[in-house]
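Thread: Newbie trying to understand structure tokens

Hi all, I'm a second-year student working on a class project, and my supervisor (Dr. K.) asked me to get a predicted structure for one chain before our next meeting. I've only ever worked with sequences, so writing a 3D structure as a token string is new to me. If someone could post the tokens and maybe explain what I'm looking at, I'd be very grateful. Here's the chain:
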Amino acid sequence: MKECFKCNVTKPLSEFYKHKVMADGHLNKCKDCAKKDVASYRAENIEKIRAYDRVRSSLPHRKALGIEINKKWREKHPERRKAHYILRSAVVKGIVKPHPCWVCGEKAEAHHPDYSRPLDVVWLCNVHHSQTHALLK
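---
Reply by user tm_fold:
Sure, no problem. This is what the structure looks like when written as tokens:
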């Protein structure tokens, strides 16, 4: 057990990130407080972080890694890739028209509830699309 110096709550060691420099091998701030601090810092410095991310993503080894990850995903999920390709072609040809997110009305992307029906999609913004996939796991 250990007490977090930010929230002053005593929690089990599993609720603290490991940190080699600390005497007990764990950070003095619990995971919840650490996550809140990171989220707060990101919100306050979003432009700086985005600039850093743009530079980092353009590094040759990062690009190569992205290509390799995409290749593995395509090999693992050929039915999803085919559905995405068919839908993209239909949108370009004007057969399917993109709609705003049906939850919040923001700009949306297509979600396939069933990949065997590539033109039958639900239009969701990035946030609601991610939440939908998280619920399906």
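A couple of things are worth pointing out once you decode it. The chain has a mean pLDDT of 96. The chain has two domains: 2-45, 59-136. Feel free to ask follow-ups in this thread.
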